[in-house]
Amino acid sequence: DQQVKQNSPSLSVQEGRISILNCDYTNSMFDYFLWYKKYPAEGPTFLISISSIKDKNEDGRFTVFLNKSAKHLSLHIVPSQPGDSAVYFCAASGGGGADGLTFGKGTHLIIQP
Amino acid sequence: DTGVSQDPRHKITKRGQNVTFRCDPISEHNRLYWYRQTLGQGPEFLTYFQNEAQLEKSRLLSDRFSAERPKGSFSTLEIQRTEQGDSAMYLCANIPWDGANVLTFGAGSRLTVL
To answer: How far is residue B108 CA from its own chain's centroid?
Structure first.
């Protein structure tokens, strides 16, 4: 039972345009959401997060939006750069357990020159 | 290097052999997690430690899997009698204090079982 879902396995975006990565969750007890970025042969690295009391958090080119009623969050990258090509994981915490984070399956973002 | 260190980075073994992975966490980060990642999936929680105490281990994949964290410092994850289905990336991560939400991951140990 996937509690965090990323329904797009891959996404191709032209350099300079906006990349939008989507994530849905089912556990209403989640209260903190994170995005991680992963390059091949490396561990995931933290990118940006948002608490459930907010609906937007911005850090440079990265903005995360949270829609609690829809149980949906998205990551916007503007403008997209070649170095952004990586797998992006959506993760959530606070689901009533102490399991750290629950991750989605990831979206492979490819930035085309 | 003050990040999470994992060793070995890649292990190739034959089915039935035992393997052990080591994780050296960020110093003074008291909560340590082990995750497994298979191809096309996100990291999957296995177990975690608060200092030397293993507080959750019901999600270890089978009784062939065990983890230790003696003295609350480095941790080891052992897989006995490996099977081909154990082939995956094994990730270690730290949280600096209770209530913190951001996991800092190591680069992982990739296991290939032939």
So the answer is: 8
Give the separation between CA A23 and CA A1, rounded to whole angstroms. 15
Name the residue facing B103 among A9, A41, A101 (closest C-beta).
A101
The answer to whether A93 faces chain B, any CB pair under 8 Å, is: yes
Cβ distance A82 to A26 under 8 Å? no
Nearest to A82 by CA among A23, A13, A36: A13
Yes or no, beta carbons of B105 and A45 under 8 Å apart: yes
Q: Read off the pLDDT of residues A38-93 as tens digits, 9 standing for 90 and up.
A: 998 889 999 999 999 999 999 999 999 999 999 999 999 999 999 999 999 999 98
Q: Say if CB A90 and CB A105 are below 8 A apart.
A: no
Residue with tokens 């052990």: B20
Residue partners of A64: CB distance under 8 A and separation at least 6: A33, A35, A48, A49, A50, A56, A57, A58, A73, A74, A75, A76
**Residue B37's CB: how many other CB atoms inside 10 A?**
22
Burial of residue A53 (number of CB atoms within 10 Å: 0-12, 13-18, 19+):
exposed
Task: Measure in Å the smallest separation between the Cα of A103 and chain B Cα atoms.
Answer: 5
- CA–CA gap between residue B83 and residue B55 (Å, rounded): 26
How far from chain centre, in Å, is Cα A75?
5
The helix/strand/coil state of B70 is helix
